[in-house]
Design goal:
The complex is a heterodimer. Chain A is built from three helices and no strands. Chain A is mostly helical. Chain A has one domain: Orthogonal Bundle (Helix Hairpins), CATH 1.10.287. In chain A, helix 1 packs antiparallel against helix 2 (about 30-55) and helix 2 (about 30-55) packs antiparallel against helix 3. By secondary structure, chain B is mostly helical. Chain B folds into two domains: about 1-85, NADH-ubiquinone/plastoquinone oxidoreductase chain 6, subunit NuoJ (Four Helix Bundle (Hemerythrin (Met), subunit A), Up-down Bundle), CATH 1.20.120.1200; about 85-160, no CATH class. Chain B contains six helices and no strands. The longest helix of chain B has 26 residues, at about 50-75. The N and C termini of chain B lie far apart (about 55 Å). The chains are: A mainly alpha, B mainly alpha. At the A-B interface, helix 1, helix 2 and helix 3 of A face helix 1, helix 2, helix 3, helix 4 and helix 5 of B.
Chain lengths: ~100, ~160
Amino acid sequence: MSVPIEYYLLLSAFMFIVGVAGVLTRRNAIVVFMSVELMLNSANLTLITFSSFMGNPVGQLFVFFVMTVAAAEAAVGLAIIIALFRNKQTVNIDEINILKW
Amino acid sequence: MIIYDLIFYLFAALTIVSAFFVVTLRNIVYSAFFLLFTFLGVTGLYVLLAADFIAIVQLVVYVGGILILLLFGVMLTNRITNVQVKSGTFQILPAVIGVGIFTGILVATMTNTKWRVLESEIPVTTVYNIGTLLLQDYVVVFELLGILLLVALIGAASMARR
């Protein structure tokens, strides 16, 4: 491993920041969803980096768990978005306020 | 190990540039396609970090599952008749402030911490270790994840079919 660990960590940090920026600024719920996937991927990359640089396979196991939860989240989230679109005819998150009193 | 460095920089550039395009492009379909390249770049980084099993799982679950699901979501939620697959942005100023502060904290933490690194030997296959851990130490988590996937499947089906 000739690339130091900080490069991998900085790469995943920047990926996470791009994901945060997407969640904060985009209006379409599906793009927000993609940004959440970016953040999950960057957390996974951090876990794999530590696991590989410390020679401990438990980090890879946790990435496996995170991927499972991410798959469940994607399925349920898209079902919610589709149900919302059927009711409100839009997926822009600033036009959806049915949970607001 | 100049080749290793070059491959790392290639995959890192692919990952970060396409992640940037995912967030900034206004066409959602293009965003989804750049998300594909981000996932591929992360897969290459997993391979460079000697995580072979996780790399394959990333390819199968993310590219084969989640991305296709997202494309179906794009197709089902945008009216095809009036081509409105573009979407705008809002809240630029608070986002810039928040992201700037967060970037500073994260970069300072990542670069100033003295990380403990073990000198690793030749990487061996990780499937044996992961399988042993999964069915011995973490078997309860494994079973709970199975139940979680079942619940998510039933919930998604019942929500989407009204």
